[in-house]
Structures
1.
Amino acid sequence: MISPKITISRVEKSRLPQIDFNNLPFGKEFSDHMFVADYEDGAWKDFRIEPLAPLSIHPGNLAWHYGQSIFEGMKASKSKDGVAMLFRPEQHIIRLNASATRMCMPEFPADMFIEAINTLVDMEKDWIPPSEGSALYIRPLMIAMDEALGVRPSAKYKLIIMTLPVGPYYPKPVSLWAEETYIRAAQGGVGEAKTAGNYAASLYPAKLAIEKGYDQIMWLDAKEFKYIQEVGTMNIFFVIGDKIVTPKTTGTILKGITKDTAIQILKHNGYEVEQRLISIDEIVEAHGKGELKEVFGSGTAAVVAKVSKIGYRDQVMELGDNTEIGDLIKSTINGLRLGTATDHWNWTVPAKGPAVSV
Ligand code: PLP
Ligand code: COI
């Protein structure tokens, strides 16, 4: 792909030889380059790829004070033939722009986003870890850049895209605490946006859950603390008897792209998936009757993560070893990424390059 719009400056010496692909904790290692664009005078401009480096930011930056900060998470993998592949990239710019609208930030042009991802991933393709379950995680971030303390939308923004070689987000099954004091999102709030504040607000309740011996929170609805929403970093699925159910998105839950991927894979394999309200009481009852066969989370970072137990009030619901449905989704996604499974949906697309170097 020839991109006259993106200027490129490369690192003098890659840090890649220092990276151990067999030891990749999530989110710690960054690749050599980042894409950057600036929004000023009502337009995005200065599209560039440059060495990843700290930014110099004014202490009065509006994003720091009032939270105009949104992000995405996507992955690139290397196919068995050595080609860098993207997974459903267009879905991520659709969601980034939906988050932008909710947070009163400017949309980023979808074609430039796709071109930026293609060019950056092609440049960083040697950073894609080869082993199944590992990937090059792509983190687009948009932040306000005005230096002012009045509460109002910023007039200036930056879009940055970083890439990071990562291993599995959850190397082992996760335990969840069904939370009844704190909430993640209320109707009319920003729960559907992938915005920094949602994650900041989750940290203290998550710390309390960890002190109780759980890995993560399973959020309940903000009004009645009755209906299951999602997990801190994933959407959630339950296998009850012969039914697969997942909370329907009602405005408070992140519309997971992996959730949609999982539903389509399950449908393709002849399973029906119910998207509806699921009360915590229904889960307790199903567990009591021995009908709760499997629980798993879905997310870009997590892919599919088995849930080992759920704590709710004084109950501890142990979930056994069954991973049948979760494994079907996980092995299909990993197979699509490696190019060993047939892509009926055209979800995997090669990252094309090179762009014009300057
Ligand atoms: N819910 C939350 C709160 C998340 O942070 C994520 C991760 O992105 C998800 C759900 C799953 O979304 P996706 O599958 O698009 O990564
Ligand atoms: C993702 O799965 O991409 C996420 O954003 C989850 C988390 C790392 C915040």
2.
Amino acid sequence: MALQEDDFKKVISHAKEYGFVFQSSEIYDGLSAVYDYAQQGVALKNNIKDYWWRAMVQMHDNIVGIDSAIFMHPTVWKASGHVDAFNDPLIDNKDSKKRYRADVLIEDHVAKIEAKIEKELAKAAKRFGDSFDKEQYMATNERVAGYIATSKSILARMGDALTKEDLAAVKELIEELKIVCPISGSANWTDVKQFNLMFGTKIGASADSAMDLFLRPETAQGIFVNFLNVQKTGRMKIPFGIAQIGKAFRNEIVARQFIFRQREFEQMEMQFFVRPGTQKEWYDKWKETRIKWHYSLGFSEDNYRFHDHDKLAHYADAAADIEFKFPFGFKELEGIHSRTDFDLSSHEKYSGKKLQFFDPELNESYVPYVVETSIGVDRMFLAIFSKSLEEETLENGSTRTVLKLPAVLAPTKAAILPLVKKDGLSELAHEIFQELQWDFAVSYDEKDAVGRRYRRQDALGTPFCITVDHQTKVDQTVTIRHRDSMEQERVAIADLSGIIDRAVSTKHWLKKMA
Ligand code: ATP
């Protein structure tokens, strides 16, 4: 069975125990909301990035990639609006002295109402069986319709208050909803204040000549300032996209959800430049393409949902999140934003340089509109990792912990295990290992009984275990054990490469998007 909400701790401890994710600077008691990826974690993370890069860059002849610097000219952040508007509303509880994001407190309150709706729907589905019509029930059942209306009205009021930057109204809403601090249980709140999330630093050797800089809070601006360079040197024609994977930094107010919300994290962003007026069409297309990418990994589709924004960022004319069912509920995994011509126009204004495209079909120049897809590598990691971790009860009553990672993302594709160390089996297993190593990330393990080695590979998410036994010496066959079904079959050594390739190749997985 997949893990439930209260098992989030198991996810975190599994990530640590098996060498996926460690707290940063752990020997110094750690640094809050900063994490290190360990030997297994880095491989999973690289595979996620590769899966995204191939889907976005390699499979689109009109999308190219870049890798821009983290440091940028400080005026970039003035032009992008981050200096003035990259704020989160914070509120403190006077009793517990804990700090919260005011919008998150309200959203969590709404999530509780949504959980009630889900509960009512599940009950009704059970009661009505096959004849259950969910949509109709939601519209006609008084209690459920009431919950839906309340959630909507709370979110609309919050959206409105935040858009108008009316922080008093945000506090009023928190008080009216009787939201209490989960630690102190009290509603003794401070006023709501704005807090800028950018980290500042300095460049230059001497104090007087040093220049104030920011660590980039998103990778997107590195793409915008290079728009014309890439368009010209790549001879790109609109519509086209520029993709980038890289680190971003945000001084998050509250960061208590493991790698979900970090102060240093990684983004995979793609800015798609389109003709003005066509942005809605492209926005819809990218929503569809991106959700298909998620579905291609094989987790059930009810783990994903779209959430259309009520409160639009200063640059957007439409925005939606792809939310994922994390162990702590549905939360944003990816954002798809129709950013209009805000960024390029603003950079034109601040830099004094034209950032336009001459459209030969229209015979005119214009500032392109932009549709962006933006996903956090670390959130994707957490989504995949938490959804893959299962505890199974086997037929003999024992349990096993298994990480059912999509094979394309698994850090190790196969483990080669000699049944025993003696009789030349180690040497034979090594030969197989060395041959497969050319094409796949494989590992070799001869320690402990083979059953324990299987369990260890299950916990690491390795899709195949290949066992070399005495018969191997006779007929050049091995057993191959499948992680999820635990089935074993006898196959020729010569066939191993093909079997593994069919299961793990990116092509095989990405084709599911078609
Ligand atoms: P949230 O509302 O959760 O703070 P956001 O709307 O500010 O997120 P965006 O600015 O749209 O996020 O960033 C795009 C993506 O980057 C997000 O969908 C998420 O996957 C990732 N991301 C943003 N902030 C963080 C963070 N602090 N830690 C890890 N990933 C993050």
